[in-house]
Design a protein that fits this description.
alpha/beta; about 270 residues; about 35% helix; about 25% strand; Rossmann fold; globular; 8 helices
Length: about 270
């Protein structure tokens, strides 16, 4: 399922419609100027398009550490619990009848079995060192039978581990040499493991490869450059993300025939518990 320019524009307009609900002026300004990061221009419209195309209606939704703006969009029609292991994330959420924040560890969710119609996690499991399968199994546990899970994460021709000198997020794994684990880029072998997890039925799978090798790495380097003026940095990030929403990723495929150093996979599963 492709994500068209029209799909992206529709998503941005949806975001602008809910900006007034955000809790802080700085957050509002940031979202108005820079509504989505480059890969989010694919991940969020993809999900919304699938929901609309299949006329899916959810009463209860669980967000696992995904970009907070999506929880606002989905909470217009459903009850959403937005979770994150970092309690600071609650500062982006204005609780209301349909939207609540809750501090949660994806590896040991506090919810009862079969609590949600829909569970989604956008660009999260790649940041979990070694135990990412356990996180998916937790999502399956709390999802109702024959309802849906949506996952996205980066993959490469060959599996990669990326390590940093300093932490970017809370609760990152730190090695004995004081390196901080950042993320995986999974390969085809790891995908097969995920697709074979018990109680998952693959419904939809699309791979968006980068157009040229190392485009994504260059994008990250551009975004890491900062200015002493925070508003100039926000503007720079917006222009970079706007450029790459057109030129970073190609049309979707389902194979590795044209594999690159980076790509973004979209999975929609149904849960079937025997």
């Amino acid at each position: 399922m492709n994500v068209s320019f029209y799909d992206k524009i529709k998503t941005v307009l949806l975001i602008y419609k809910i900006v007034y609900r955000l809790p802080r002026l700085k957050t509002m300004i940031n979202i108005i100027v820079n509504p989505l990061d480059s890969t989010r221009y694919y991940e969020i419209p993809y999900l919304l398009k699938y929901i609309n195309k299949n006329n899916l209606k959810f009463n209860s939704i669980l967000d696992i550490s995904s970009p907070f703006i999506l929880s606002y969009i989905l909470s217009k029609k459903s009850k959403v619990i937005k979770t994150d292991i970092n309690e600071w994330e609650k500062h982006y959420i204005c609780d209301n009848e349909n939207l609540k924040f809750q501090k949660e560890d994806a590896l040991k969710l506090s919810f009862e079995d079969s609590s949600f119609d829909f569970v989604y996690s956008i660009s999260v499991i790649e940041h979990i060192y070694l135990r990412y399968i356990q996180a998916i199994e937790e999502m399956i546990r709390v999802c109702k039978n024959w309802w849906y899970i949506y996952l996205t994460f980066p993959v490469s021709t060959n599996k990669k581990e990326e390590w940093l000198e300093n932490s970017l997020y809370s609760d990152q794994f730190i090695s004995k040499s004081n390196k901080v684990f950042f993320q995986y880029r999974f390969d085809e072998i790891e995908l097969e493991k995920i697709e074979k997890i018990n109680w998952l039925q693959l419904i939809k799978k699309d791979i968006f490869w980068e157009r040229k090798n190392w485009d994504f790495d260059y994008l990250v380097r551009l975004l890491k450059k900062t200015s002493t003026n925070i508003y100039l940095t926000i503007l720079k990030d917006a222009l970079v993300n706007l450029y790459y929403w057109f030129f970073l990723l190609k049309k979707p495929t389902n194979d590795f025939m044209d594999s690159k150093d980076f790509w973004n996979i979209h999975y929609i599963f149904k849960v079937y518990k025997s």
